[in-house]
Write a structure and sequence with these properties.
The complex is a heterodimer of chains A (about 190) and B (about 270). By secondary structure, chain A is mostly helical. In chain A, about 80% of the residues lie in helices and about 0% in strands. Chain A has one domain: Orthogonal Bundle (Arp2/3 complex 21 kDa subunit ARPC3), CATH 1.10.1760. The two termini of chain A are about 15 Å apart. In chain B, about 70% of the residues lie in helices and about 5% in strands. The N and C termini of chain B lie far apart (about 50 Å). The chains are: A mainly alpha (about 190), B mainly alpha (about 270). Chain A: Keywords: Cell membrane, Membrane, Transmembrane, Transmembrane helix, Transport.
């Protein structure tokens, strides 16, 4: 879509707004710890990253999390969860954005999303182990978790959570994008 | 489904806190968070607490709203309290049941952590209670201004934040309208197997996205028609004003921080 810089900026803002609203509609997934909630706020970010480029996707992820921190607040007073969400979302959307913008096929979309899911799961497991879980225990002043306890939580909670979240969003987004693409392509043509 | 979501909790008022510059409030909150993490004994926790109560009194916000803001975290506070009491084994034994001993250190640790969480929630919710969301983004833009020097798009980011904020209520309304329209046609959002529920989301999201793109087009056109050309040299309807009370507030917080650093147990 080539409609100028202002349009791009406003559209990204609108998508961030949708992302924030979708973030509020989160739900726990049966069988996973309750503090890991699934939401579809990655969908507008993906759309922004595919239509306007990776930086736009990054902006949606950023604005959504800043709004969430500012409007809802955080239990530790320090935005650990928001930072985690920002990192995981960014890793998830970038591969899909790259492949779709390069090859423009449905296969590249689903392939990119699956790669994103795998990358997000690996990265978040690692980050939880070295930064996020220790940060939570430090801010809540909970007793330090032992390395095996953290590994346990990661293998039964965090890794499956990221895989399930990634696959659910992949399924939803493929449904959505195949129906939305014709309209988007029509918009991209010069009208005047 | 969407009724009980609060968007911004600003309460109009004329108190000192309401009239303070958002930049001063943001910096003060930032300092306060650091100060709360400095506290580590009875005296310092008491000082930080008195300060929190004093700011609440200054804001003239009724305690009912403060309590409402704290409700979601009370469960978490209780949970961490119990965890601390059960798992810390320090100090003298205060109470001895056969299967569980209550330690002096555990109780103290539990009270401290619960207080820390409560203070943080109380003071940060005061910010949103006494400051309009748009003033907060204006304040942020101004505070982050120096980052423009290293080519970070601070103005664009702040503008996108304001637009996103402005359209949250509109979008909530629209989501609800579309949901009702689809439900009237027999759509089910809350029952059925996962894959079916996912598919039910698609006819909800497509109209939402398309109408947002159209709205973005209108807004961009309106902005360009009014001569919007980016942040450079843009004038404002509401100009932030830094006054004496802002300087005093920051000064008080710096004194508080230094005082706490001296009084905390090293």
């Amino acid at each position: 879509m080539h409609k100028g810089k202002v349009y791009k900026m406003v559209a990204v803002a609108m998508l961030s707004s949708i992302a924030y609203v979708l973030m509020l509609l989160d739900f726990p997934f049966p069988g996973l710890p309750v503090f890991l909630q699934i939401d579809f706020s990655e969908v507008p970010a993906l759309l922004a990253a595919i239509i306007f480029g990776p930086l736009a996707g990054l902006a949606v992820e950023g604005i959504k999390n800043v709004l969430h921190y500012g409007l809802i607040g955080n239990l530790t007073g320090v935005p650990v969860g928001e930072v985690a969400n920002f990192i995981s979302g960014t890793i998830f959307i970038l591969p899909a954005s790259y492949f779709v913008r390069k090859y423009r096929t449905t296969k590249s979309l689903s392939g990119g999303l699956v790669i994103g899911t795998v990358a997000m799961t690996l990265m978040m497991s690692l980050l939880n182990y070295i930064i996020i879980l220790p940060a939570y225990t430090w801010f809540l002043h909970a007793p330090q978790m032992s390395n095996t306890a953290m590994l346990n939580l990661i293998t039964i909670g965090i890794a499956p959570f990221n895989i399930i979240k990634g696959l659910l969003i992949t399924a939803l987004f493929v449904f959505l994008y195949t129906r939305l693409a014709p309209w988007l392509n029509k918009q991209a043509q010069p009208t005047v | 489904m969407l009724d009980n979501i609060i968007i911004g909790q600003y309460l109009p008022g004329q108190s000192v806190l309401h009239r303070m510059d958002p930049r001063a409030k943001l910096s003060a909150i930032f300092l306060y968070i650091i100060v709360v993490f400095l506290a580590n004994n009875w005296l310092t926790y008491a000082i930080v607490g008195v300060f929190a109560l004093f700011t609440i009194a200054l804001s003239r916000v009724s305690l009912r709203y403060i309590y409402k803001g704290m409700k979601p975290v009370i469960l978490i506070v209780l949970f961490t309290f119990i965890l601390q009491v059960l798992l810390t084994r320090e100090g003298a034994v205060l109470y001895d049941l056969r299967w569980f001993k209550l330690y002096d250190g555990g109780l103290r640790q539990g009270i401290f952590i619960s207080l820390r969480l409560l203070y943080l929630v109380m003071v940060t919710s005061l910010l949103t209670l006494t400051t309009k969301p748009l003033d907060i983004t204006d304040g942020l833009e101004s505070l982050l201004g120096p980052l423009k020097k290293i080519k970070l798009p601070v103005h664009e980011f702040a503008l996108m934040m304001s637009i996103a904020l402005r359209f949250i209520p509109t979008l909530l309304q629209e989501t609800e309208k579309i949901m009702k329209a689809q439900m009237a046609r027999g759509a089910e959002f809350t029952t059925g197997p996962i894959l079916q529920r996912l598919k039910a989301f698609v006819p909800l999201l497509i109209p939402l996205f398309i109408s947002s793109f159209k709205r973005a087009e209108d807004l961009a056109l309106a902005m360009e028609a009014r001569g919007y050309r980016g942040g450079e040299g843009r004038t404002r309807l509401r100009v932030l004003k830094w006054t004496g009370k802002d300087t005093i507030a920051l000064f008080v917080l710096v004194v508080l921080a230094v005082g706490l650093y001296v009084l905390r147990t090293h």
